Write a sequence for this structure.
């Protein structure tokens, strides 16, 4: 079994692009209540890319864990993120079927 | 897809026994870093059962989500929990192979 990490510690885990540049951090996880499978990592790309403080839900299966960097790698660049679904820190959406479908479609899933 | 819940909101989700009595709450989740699957719910049974403030890791597949109660049900009673693996709030173990095997064995998995 792979290593486990506390949900309390996931907040702040680094996220990198394929080139190894740090994009930001994971702010929160959206978890399937029944199966316990993480469905979305909610990312904060803040200052580094100039994308502000919005939160970006990214489907979990787009993330790859890199043990060498002790963080996650996503195959995304700034241009892809500029049009991506996002919300303000105090405006978390319901993550209902419609919202999840829209997020998945944006990423081609 | 079932409803999702924020990892930040999981803290405090109620846990019930099969009879519907509230046992305590989920304090934290231990998540497989690679797959994103929750492996253990870390529970706090505190005052209700007189079990103190220790944390109890319980294998995720022992939990059933009950939409009516908006919480999780575990098939455990006080006598089973009295001998269960636990740790103090400030003494989180490494959750290495040995530790996880011990927890799983305690619950017969």
């Amino acid at each position: 079994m792979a290593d486990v990490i506390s949900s309390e510690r996931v907040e702040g885990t680094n996220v990198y692009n394929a080139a190894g540049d740090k994009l930001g951090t994971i702010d929160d996880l959206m978890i399937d209540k029944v199966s316990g499978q993480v469905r979305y990592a909610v990312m904060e790309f803040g200052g580094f890319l100039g994308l502000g403080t919005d939160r970006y839900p990214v489907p979990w299966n787009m993330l790859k864990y890199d043990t060498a960097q002790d963080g996650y790698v996503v195959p995304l660049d700034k241009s892809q993120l500029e049009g991506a679904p996002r919300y303000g820190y105090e405006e978390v959406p319901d993550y209902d079927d419609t919202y999840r479908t829209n997020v998945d479609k944006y990423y081609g899933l």
User: Anything to note?
Assistant: The longest strand of chain A covers residues 22-32.
